[in-house]
What does this fold into?
Amino acid sequence: MRSTFKTLFYINRGKVKKDGTTAIFCRITVDGEQTVITTGIFCNPKDWKSKKGEVKDEKVNGQLKSFRQRIEQTYENTLKKYGVVSVDLLKNAILEIHTIPTMLLLAGEAERERLRVRSLEINSTSTYRQSKISQNNLREYLLTLKMKDIAFTDITEEFGEGYKLFLKAKEYKSGHINHCFTWLNRLIYIAVDQEILRFNPIADVKYEKKEPPKLQHISRNELKLIMEKPMPNTFQELIRRAFIFSAFTALAYVDLKGLYPRHIGRTAEGKPFIRIHRKKTQVEAYVPLHPVAEQILSLYNTEDDTKPVFPLPNRDQIWYCITEIGFLAGVKGNMSYHQSRHTFGTLLLSEGIPIESISKMMGHTNISTTQVYAKVTDMKISEDMDKLIERRKAM
It folds into this structure.
């Protein structure tokens, strides 16, 4: 005989976390008997619709729908396996499938899988790729301690300090050390959120002092080499033009990929400009168009606002391509796309453009960010003067 089976999602409005969210629970009823399990999904109590058992956010609703389907599938599998289903039998089967890892590396792998799925949703794999490196470093550190894994409850402040020393011994730069340490903290805070731990035992372990930013840019002559070297491959030519366009507009790749005809306008005098909010900071960038940028723009979509201006691929697909472009054009060293943006800042400063204007064009949140370009330019002038002095000494 088939059991009566129902599920109901609900929240406890009296138990709200510091970030203003509360957990969504699922009440399962089988033949009149009930049990409750946590879904691991959170929402703002104001957004919860009790009658429908959902929230305003469609993404969260999708997660709840997926969770309900998994429960229903587990019910069907349990019924098929045992011929009968009790509330305890069903709960045990569900918890066995959705158990929260209590070991560090296991939790890391579970989080990496979540990031992998997320990377497909947002079409960006940078965080997922970085997590692989951080996870491998954690694994190597545990092996130095002759451990294959460690329980969250066994992690101490000394463990965190030791991990930082391990990363330093590998001669990583402070930025990379902080990335790896952030991954460890991320996993621990997940354990805290799931109530495996009461607090973060390594919360007092300090991050490495951040190094001053080193802005890599190409010289005016190197930019000229790229401009004078059309690529034989259609894809390479698209990326070459995009790089040049960014060097004359300061648009980061993500902003260029999100550039639409609506972002292009003209002044009362008929001069073209781009006005767009930067993806990274949401600060508006206003960039009058250089004739070179205007010429490139004329080759692409400037009319159909349902499509982007440039048919650019995901950023991950251009890494090798941009290096090949630099090599074919005769630029020394490995070239990265973001050098185009840094090149814009340094070239404009060297031409005497006011730093306030450059800050507005680059969409910086603070003018102190733009001043870094001034330091780079000053260093370049100093280096050029040193070379001149050396040449005169030799003469």
About this structure: Strands lie at 5-11, 22-30, 33-43, 264-266, 272-277, 284-288.
